[in-house]
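[09:14] KT: can someone run the structure on this one? pasting the chain below
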Amino acid sequence: MEQRLILINLLVKLGVAAAVSSSLVRSKEFKLLLFREERSFRQKIYLVLWFGLPIMIGVWIRISQNHFLAGDLSFETTILLGMVAGRWAGSLGGVLMAFPAMLHGDWATLPFLLLCGFISGQFRTMALDKDDIWSFTPFIDQSIFRLIRRNLPRPRLFDWQIIFFMTVIGLRFVQTELVTYFPHSVFALESPDNWWVESAIYAASVMAIGIELKIFNSVRIQIKLEEQERLLLHARMEALQNQINPHFLFNTLNSISSLVRFDPDMARDVISKLATILRRLLNSSEAFAPLRDEFEFIDNYLDIEVVRFGRDKLRVVKQLDPASLDVVVPSMLLQPLVENSIKHGLGPKIEGGSIYLRSRVANSRLIIEVEDDGVGMGGAKLEESSSWAGMGIGMANISERLQVLYGDTARMTIDSQEGKGTLIRIRLPLVEAASSVPEGFYAERSSTRR
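[09:31] RB: done, structure tokens below
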């Protein structure tokens, strides 16, 4: 073949390798199979089919058209499959991809690809660090530099990537020899009369493997980063939730300590109610709960606060839409809001006041309101509280939890007038209790924030 056409086919070959790998990695099922460290026999079969069927089509096009030679990536794909899935998957993939060529009369293709798949799979077992497989690069100079740098403080002559690079070159040389001594036994682009074109042919085989691995590795790194971010968000949310519970307990114990001095019977009753609250906190590790359960929790909390303030100084008014009670909300969402109204709104007011609890569903949003007719806040204090830090630990944590869980789809606002009271309103997306919290909730919220 003319040398110019060989070079064109090599460039097209690299493009085909990139296109095939990019198409495969778009499939969720393929990614689940590809990035597993351990696979069952059935999973290996499925992975072989994912790799082998597109390449079989390329081999068939090469045979039937006799011009699109760049479509035959059976050599490179067999080695790649052995690297990522092991000896048996590599060998089986080689047999599968050799089938069209065998029917065409290329009798040496099957034993040669079988050998390539087995050897590359053996290299997978030799890799002490499996990340070496995914970070394989066709640029041998980088591997040599890394080997030299590693040997300076502590000599170690074996470098997996260099050995594997030389093995690919060696297998490609075997293919060249088969073409030389047994014409038409196996397909391969060759240019024995021009050494630099022949070198380009060898380099293209290594580059095709490297390109596919780079594409797979970039997706693998992206999946790992998303998983780490999801775990980080989950841990952060749990830390914020756990920070609320001691804060609530501290304030409640202060109320009990004041009752012990002048009304021991009432103190025992409050302790009993506190035990009910703590039992719920200890028995439930769920991050979400139906709004109905949150209001039941608040009833126990308010019973304690009514005892402390007196029934004539603390009144509670509920306006709850039944349709809103089955909506799932973050656990311990309401208690800091109610505590804030009592402490900052009604606490400084000598004659006491009322707390209004409201919930409703409007425009595909759950709206929760906690309002008091306490002392309220002036403009300066309201501006200071806009960051929620000035409203106390509980309120700041609620704001941050909503941001972690819902991103920009949730909103908490404050409206206050000095001498008239404060209204805190939360708007949340609807999540029905019957469907619970969807799997991957944190990852979905993470992508929303980006």
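[09:33] KT: thanks! The chain has a mean pLDDT of 81.
[09:34] RB: yep, looked fine to me
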